[in-house]
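re the bet — no i am not wrong, look at it urself. input seq straight from the record:
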Amino acid sequence: MKRLIYFLNYSTVLLILLIFVSCEDEFNNFPVINYSPCDDSNVIINPNIISDFECQSNFFLNDVVSLRNPTETPLNSSKFVGMYTDTSNPTDFIGIDIDGAIDLSKNSVFKIKVKTEISGELRVMLDGGASNPVFISKDVEGNNGWAIYSFDFSWRQNENHKELKIFFNYGQEILGGIPNVYYIDDLIFDTYVDPCQNVQQISTVISDFECQQNFEIINNSNNFQVISNPYPDEINNSVFVGVFIDDGTNLSDALTIGLGESLNLSENPQLHIKIHSSIKAPLLAKLRGGSYQQNIYSNIVKTGEWINYIFDFSNADYKHTTLEIYFNHGVSNGPSDQIFYVDEIMFLPAPCDEPLIEDCSGIVPDLNIISNWNCQQNFGIENSIPIVSNPLISCENRSQSVGKYTDNGLEPWDAFILNYGTTIDLSNFNKLKFKLYTSSSIQVLAKIEGGSAVEKWSDFSMVSSWQEFSYDFSDSISNGNTTLVLFFNAGQNNGSSEDIYFIDELRWEED
């Protein structure tokens, strides 16, 4: 019995050995499964593809190894991808040296697929060459899935760069010795599609440094450039902004914009500008080129964030040709390279229910303005037409202060009289204008005397609203007139002994 059991055991072992040897022989007959990044020997190189780690690996990527795709998904079904291990240096990068200048004329959108568990800033920079470095940043969500990130350098089409740098988790130092691994694939400069091709020009936008760049910024590249927004936030998440480098030793240093002749501020008098500054500083916005320059002062009140500053030019001459923004105004002992970021410079309508707050410091008298009962009081008429609060703040007149004229409505020809004591110069400024507010419908007769007298009648006024009257005295240039007379409710004696009329912005304007 024991011999039988031994024989059976021996036979069983022999049978297993025979089967194993037979299977091994069969296994050797199967081909070895082998993957190669590219089996195609006739690939035509596409210079716009940096690398797909398969058939188009056209540029060397430092510190990147090629390996099998750890996660093939519909978004990235490639067999091979690259792997980059971030070092502890917060600003280390993958550097790609392009042979010659990067051609952005048609393919200016850099794209890269990334798979990682690390959330942080992905920064792509164009460097080298004759132009200054530029970069664009995107936030990476470390969900360990493949994602495509696009960086639009279309605004850099005419610049000269020779190197592409890719920073992962920019600015963050790796602690604890745990490596940060990034899988990357399909690095390519893709076709440029003009994001502004269907954008309509908005004539009151000076510049948003993207699709609305409608007026010439006169500064050169030494103190003004367009760059990627370094501090996007809720107030300003624009892709591109302007950067002004202020020479704090030069009092005349300003961001200067040519307005040409196409910008009419009559309906959009408020200048808006977003500023990001590292210091608090005085500001000055100046309009030049009209009959007199207009200055409005302000201050940078917060640092380290985007703030929208407003300059209200509602009382400005609308024929200005140049806008100047003075940063750190009046400072001559500051640094020569103080940086101010700016964006969305535009003129917008003024809110009709808010009074115009005027700063009269530094105002130069304009003798073509008789009085606006605020910063321009040039002939002393405020004694007979005193300064009072505006009875109706509206779009037609947002002045805080106006003139109050009391008329004897029982006398048909009593009047306000301004004697210049010399000949009124009507050679260029011969349109008499003022704003009127009255509780009854009246006519105002304007008369110039002291030479060959000329009378001009107005239409009947509107009731309880501000209205501008205009009188053309261009036919009186050579009359030698010395006196201006205004008859309110002229020729009528149906009022009271104290009829009240409010008047504002009494002035002569150009022909």
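see?? The helical segments are 2-28. told u. also The radius of gyration is 38 Å. so pay up
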